[in-house]
Amino acid sequence: MSDHKIEQIRVHRINIPAKAVHSHGSGDVAGIHVAILEMTTDTGITGWGEASPWPVFTGTAEGCAAALHVHLRPHLIGRDPVQVEKHMSMADKIVVGHPEAKAALEMALLDITGQIAGLSVCELVGGRMRDDMGMSFSIANPDFDKDLEDVAAMWADGVRIFKFKTGFADHRFDLMRLEKMREIYGEEADIRIDYNQGLAAYDAVRRVRDLEVFRPTFVEQPVKMHEREVMAHITHVIDAPIMADESVFDPRGALYAANIRMADIFSLKIMKSGGIRRALEVAAIARAAGIEVYGGCMFETGLAHAAGTHLMAAVPDLILQCEFYMSTYYAQDDILTEPFPVRNGRVHVPEGAGLGVRVDPEKLAKYAVADPLN
Length: 374
Ligand SMILES: [Mg+2]
What we know:
about 375 residues; Enolase-like, domain 1; TIM Barrel; seven-stranded parallel sheet; three-stranded antiparallel sheet; 13 strands; globular; binds magnesium ion; magnesium ion binding; chloromuconate cycloisomerase activity
């Protein structure tokens, strides 16, 4: 029991435009449309959380704002913020799905708990295994020449990991881009491929095989999220490691995927699992099954990125690094008071109590798409 009580909960809905449209096997995205949770205690501590949905993948910002404001808020006001699992179990009982809203709730609770305890969020959930990790940037601009300019600038910044979004245009376009990338940057580039469910199951193996000659570190989510047995088949016959993203959301999904060896790697995302602690449960299942994990993100501000870095800082082993690039290289602006820490191609886990980052209220007002829900 702590001496603190949740006094106020406010939900902001914002939209930050992107520098360029990004295309994926599941559609185009031109901005970061998220719900931000501001939770204040009667002792004057503020915790921040973010729900970053993708409508073709998880849910909507409008739905998350309603889940938080209408359905969860009445069960939180007056309660002790440090009883995190109690509140998360309540959330699972009250609202089905909405993992991004639950991620936002857990983020704000852990941010407050960390400030009370004087510990960072990664320390609250197990400890800091690393202070920084390699950052992957996604090549997803339909104008490939523009992407090449961006890659050149990032290469100079020390970025070496690039994930090609494939399957949104012609197969030959994908082959051409990968060939060009290897031609320019050779073996020093760590190239990954993400289909975002873009291939038809009947000829997915043949197309993935065509791309294997470019030696991708992994091939992510070639087919539809519900085609889990097709994923398992592709994993079985293709030499390159296959990663499940859309097909694995939470511990239950991870258990099924591990049992049928659906993939060699799981992409961990707090927006899929419903928070950092559930994502660590997914990581534990993966570890027991000999499956690697990767730090994925949605279309997020630096706030959700910070939470993602705390998750990935607490994972025991991390070979494949992470992709928290949105606030630095994709969005036109961020909502944090200090830039999200990316240096020399590496993401740095914020120091300090709680999430270790603070939100600028003026930025929330600037990018608001609706009045805050109080
Ligand atoms: Mg993905």
